[in-house]
Design brief:
Number of domains: 2
Number of helices: 11
CATH superfamily of the largest domain: ABC-type transport auxiliary lipoprotein component
Largest sheet: 6 strands, mixed
CATH class of the largest domain: Alpha Beta
CATH architecture of the largest domain: 3-Layer(aba) Sandwich
Mean pLDDT: 91
Strand content: 25-35%
Low-confidence stretches: 1-20
Shape: flat
Structural class: alpha+beta
Distance between the termini: 10 Å
CATH topology of the largest domain: Rossmann fold
Order of helices and strands: HEEHEHEEEHHEEEEHEHHHHH
Length: 333
């Protein structure tokens, strides 16, 4: 379990990018879900939320939960909506399940560990205004002699969405997660403009998009792409290790990190006090998910530098964060 977890926390680099003189690698790491309490319930059911957008938004959130994956592994099992509708009809439950006892009874019937319910409301508003324009009415020798002012009608369209999803544990009957999400968008245009205001439907989708994104971050671990800078300073190296350091950077630039790591490890045997070699080997350990080892190499690099170095400080903080994330992910996955 530990080996699998380490390998999935930080995936090997996907590509190499150059920024100025520094070589950077793009790597992917898994970030814990924002709400650990949600991840404890792996079989869930969704009920229609109350509010004018209740059914649509509960269905959208349900899709987010269904699609929540980490390393191609689904994080939740969601009770089929057709089965839910059938049970609600047969048992004559209220659709929004406002009563916690009713939610527990329902959850037991459908075999869910927890049930999502809540509130979802959208407000659409159109306000009208006018803008003043001026038009030249008479030209003489290419110069305007006088202007006429006129007005054109304009519209401001505003969309506001409020959602409060709640997750109720069937075992305890307690709400284990409740959070308010707000999304908004607006659009403005006038009758004589090439730009026309977005429609109500377009504004609704735009305002909802950010809510769905933030909800996803809360309910399951997710992949984040980061950039990791390599070090090429040759201080503390001899001729052999200097060549190994340089060649390792070249392999890294050509998406051959496994070979680069091998060269840096050999170079470190030649020059154990090299700042860059200790740091780069630490990066290799980090990419392999061995964060304690990575922290050890980063710390050595900082000690040998004898002063704060931004790239090393960033790596130390990153390794410490990954060690803490490892503990949280073990609970969530």
């Amino acid at each position: 379990m530990r080996h699998i977890l380490q390998n999935c926390i930080l995936v090997l680099l996907s590509m190499i990018v150059l920024s100025g003189c520094a070589t950077k690698i793009n790597a992917s790491k898994i970030i814990p879900a924002g709400a650990t309490e949600v991840t404890r319930y792996k079989t869930v059911a969704f009920l229609d939320f109350s509010g004018n957008k209740g059914r649509d938004i509960s269905s959208r959130l349900e899709t987010v939960v269904i699609k929540a994956e980490v390393n191609d592994k689904k994080q939740y099992s969601v009770v089929d909506r057709a089965n839910i509708d059938k049970i609600i009809k047969e048992q004559q439950f209220q659709m929004t399940m406002a009563n916690p006892d009713t939610i527990v009874d329902f959850g037991q019937l459908v075999g869910a560990e927890a049930v999502w319910a809540g509130y979802a409301q959208s407000t659409y508003n159109v306000s009208r205004s006018y803008e003043t324009r001026s038009k030249c009415m008479n030209y003489v020798d290419g110069k305007c002699q006088y202007y006429r002012e006129y007005t054109v009608p304009c519209e401001t369209r505003d969309m506001l969405i409020n959602i409060t999803p709640k997750l109720t544990s069937i075992a305890t009957g307690q709400v284990v997660y409740a959070k308010e999400f707000k999304g908004k968008d607006s659009s403005y245009g006038c009758s004589d403009s090439l730009f026309t205001p977005e429609s109500e439907g377009e504004l609704y989708e735009s305002a909802l998009k950010n809510i769905l994104y933030n909800f996803r971050l809360d309910i399951a671990p997710y992949v984040q792409t980061i950039q990791i800078e390599l070090m090429s300073n040759t201080d503390g190296t001899n001729d052999t290790s200097k060549l190994l350091l340089k060649n390792g950077i070249s392999f890294a630039k050509n998406d051959r990190m496994e070979k680069a790591c091998e060269l840096w490890q050999n170079g470190l045997k030649e020059s154990p006090y090299s700042i860059s070699l200790n740091y780069n080997v630490g990066v290799c350990k980090e990419l392999a998910g061995k964060f304690n080892d990575a922290l050890s190499y980063f710390s050595k690099a900082e000690d040998y530098a004898g002063k704060p170095v931004r790239v090393i400080s960033d790596a130390i903080n990153r390794a410490k964060e990954s060690i803490e994330n490892q503990k949280t992910l073990k609970q969530q996955m």
